[in-house]
Structure formats: structure tokens, C-alpha cells
């Protein structure tokens, strides 16, 4: 019997609001530099309000929305949210606290999720002292192509080189219907699906059993993940398996042969299949079962696919996932001094 991993809080709605007044947000410590003063939002009431506000910016805000969604439901990665002002913010940056980012070379941990309604404010936020530690290897993720120019300009001023990864963003149709129904109605001629489609190819349920991944299985994922293959990525994968729902099919010997994980932003990621089991529809079966288990719990579901991966594009489309024009973007940043 497959048991969905339990999370610390129920996913049906926000956690109960505490009976208390609204506490003021905390200000980051600043030097005398007249930069934008980012605010650190830590109270449950404000984080819940932030989640509701981010919902209005979907799909561009989905990466940050998904992160805050899980911050509000246990916060297993111990993340914190920064805004330029409250409550009418322009820019949101979610990151680990400083005490979590102890390895200057670990960009998997040193990850910043960004959404901005105003790129000039975003520029000021990125340059603001105390917001981003540009002396570390880090990565920035977002769903707005306009962030590219801003990030590169600020990085250049900090003597940091940037490598950009642009891929296609896919969003689950039920997630769009719940959070951004206008996107499903934008072009009736496209006949966009309103629900996840069941895979046409059946699998042998007696031989291949649906299960949850175990932390000890992280090495399999690390060996096939395009962004992985090293000790730091292995630690990240273990952490994701430990804290978020992961699904796999186990073969006759009881070891995973195909899988799909979730990261701290709520994105379905790191899917893979052992070479000898490919072209059997395993990933489609896993993702379908994954969505059927997580959608009733209110999870916002989305993923990204490399532009040169036609197989995964066909798979996402066959399941009814909708490609979104804004795309999925990651900026890997390395200080020039450490790259020599």
C-alpha cells in the first residue's frame, strides 16, 4: 500500500490564524548607504497575507507563491520572505536565513526566489546591502524574463559572473483553473484541458509498485539529474526527499526504476528513469498519480522542461499541462574572484 508522506500541517487552506495583533515587520540591518530598505516578513499573519497577494500575480509569481505556500505549511527549508514595502509590495525575495547559508560554494542552498512588479525596485532590492550575499556561489530563480537584465547589471557591479538557464514552464490545468482561470479562457480555440489527463499507456501494477522515495535512494536521482551529479546536489536531493512528497515506481527487486520529486518551491522536479526501463510510460504514470494525490491537498503544481527535450514536452502536453509564455529561468552566479 502506498502512503503519501505526511507534512507538518494540513494542506487544505492556510493554517489557523493566531488570535493576536499584527506585529510590525522586521527591518534588515543597514549601513548608511541610501539603498532600498528591505523588510523581513516573519509573522504568520503577514506570510498568509503575502500568499494571498502573490496569487494575484500568477503565473509570473508562481515560483515565489509555491515557496511561500510551503513556508506557511511547516517551512521545512526554514526560508524567509523579504519585501520592499508592506503591504503594497513591489518586490518579493524568498531565501534561507544567513545562518543556513554557511557553505559559500553551495548554490543549491544559497537559492533566492524572486518576483517583482517593478524592475527598478527589483534592481534596488538586489543591490541593497544584506539582501543577497554576492560573495557566495548562488542561484536565483524566477518566472519573469525581464529579470535577466536587472540581475546581470547588479551582478556586474558586484564582480559576479552569471550563467542563465531558460526553459519552458508547464502548469497543471487544475492549478491554473483554481489560481489563474483567465489563462484557461484566453483562447477558446486552443481547447485547453481543464483537468489532468490519464496516461494512455498502462503499466504492470503487479511488477512495478508505486511508492515513496527514501533518502537512501537519493544517489539514483543525483546520477541522472541534469543540475546534479555532485555532493552538494546529493545533500539537496536528500533534503527534498526528506521533507516533500516524492513518488517512484519500484521494480521487481524493490529499488526505484523511475521517479518524480518536489523541491522547496513546490515544483515537480528531478524526474528520471533508469536507462533499461525507458520508453515504457513510467514517468507519465508517476506524475499522473502524483498530481492525483497532491491536488486534493491544495498543492500548486508546476514543472519545467528543457527546450531541447521533445520527449518531456510531449509527456507534459499528454497529461494536459499548459505551457506558459513567461518561461522558467535560473541564474547561477559566481564571484569572479572564486572562479579564477
From TrEMBL:
Acetylation among keywords: yes
> What is its EC class?
transferase
Question: Which InterPro entries does UniProt cross-reference here?
Answer: Acyl_CoA_acyltransferase, Glycine_N-acyltransferase, Glycine_N-acyltransferase_C, Glycine_N-acyltransferase_N
- Any idea where the Glycine N-acyltransferase N-terminal domain is? 38-245
Reaction(s) the record says it catalyses: benzoyl-CoA + glycine = N-benzoylglycine + CoA + H(+); an acyl-CoA + glycine = an N-acylglycine + CoA + H(+)
Q: What's one GO-annotated cellular component?
A: mitochondrion
Q: What is its EC number?
A: 2.3.1.-
The residues covered by the Glycine N-acyltransferase C-terminal domain are: 247-335
Keywords, ordered alphabetically: Acetylation, Acyltransferase, Detoxification, Mitochondrion, Transferase
Per the record, the GO terms for biological process are: response to toxic substance
Q: Which family does it belong to?
A: Belongs to the glycine N-acyltransferase family.
Instruction: Write down what this protein is called.
Output: Glycine N-acyltransferase-like protein
Amino acid at each position: 500500500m502506498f502512503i503519501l508522506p505526511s507534512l507538518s500541517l494540513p494542506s487544505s487552506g492556510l493554517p489557523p490564524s493566531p488570535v493576536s495583533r499584527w506585529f510590525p515587520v522586521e527591518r534588515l540591518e543597514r549601513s548608511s548607504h541610501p539603498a532600498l530598505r528591505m523588510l523581513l516578513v516573519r509573522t504568520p499573519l503577514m506570510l498568509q497575507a503575502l500568499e494571498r497577494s502573490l496569487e494575484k500575480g500568477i503565473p509570473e509569481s508562481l515560483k515565489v507563491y509555491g515557496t511561500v505556500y510551503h513556508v506557511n505549511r511547516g517551512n521545512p527549508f526554514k526560508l524567509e520572505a523579504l519585501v520592499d514595502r508592506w503591504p503594497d509590495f513591489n518586490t518579493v525575495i524568498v531565501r534561507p536565513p544567513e545562518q543556513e547559508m554557511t557553505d559559500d560554494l553551495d548554490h543549491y542552498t544559497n537559492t533566492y526566489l524572486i518576483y517583482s512588479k517593478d524592475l527598478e525596485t527589483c534592481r534596488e532590492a538586489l543591490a541593497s546591502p544584506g539582501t543577497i550575499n554576492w560573495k557566495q556561489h548562488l542561484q536565483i530563480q524566477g518566472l519573469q524574463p525581464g529579470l535577466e537584465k536587472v540581475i546581470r547589471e547588479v551582478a556586474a557591479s558586484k564582480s559576479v559572473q552569471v550563467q542563465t538557464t531558460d526553459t519552458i514552464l508547464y502548469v497543471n490545468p487544475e492549478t491554473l483553473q483554481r489560481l489563474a482561470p483567465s489563462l484557461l479562457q484566453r483562447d477558446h480555440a486552443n481547447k485547453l484541458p481543464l483537468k489532468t489527463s490519464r496516461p494512455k499507456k498502462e503499466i504492470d501494477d503487479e511488477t512495478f509498485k508505486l511508492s515513496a522515495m527514501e533518502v537512501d535512494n537519493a544517489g539514483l536521482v543525483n546520477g541522472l539529474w541534469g543540475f546534479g551529479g555532485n555532493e552538494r546536489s546529493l545533500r539537496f536531493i536528500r533534503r527534498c526527499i526528506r521533507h516533500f512528497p516524492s513518488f517512484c515506481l519500484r521494480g521487481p527487486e524493490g529499488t526505484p526504476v523511475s521517479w518524480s520529486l518536489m523541491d522547496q518551491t513546490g515544483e515537480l522536479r528531478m524526474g528520471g528513469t533508469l536507462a533499461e526501463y525507458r520508453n515504457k510510460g513510467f514517468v507519465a504514470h508517476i506524475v499522473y498519480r502524483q498530481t492525483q494525490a497532491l491536488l486534493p491537498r491544495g498543492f500548486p503544481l508546476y514543472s519545467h522542461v528543457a527546450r531541447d527535450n521533445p520527449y518531456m514536452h510531449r509527456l507534459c502536453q499528454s497529461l494536459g499541462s499548459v505551457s506558459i509564455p513567461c518561461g522558467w529561468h535560473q541564474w547561477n552566479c559566481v564571484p569572479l574572484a572564486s572562479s579564477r
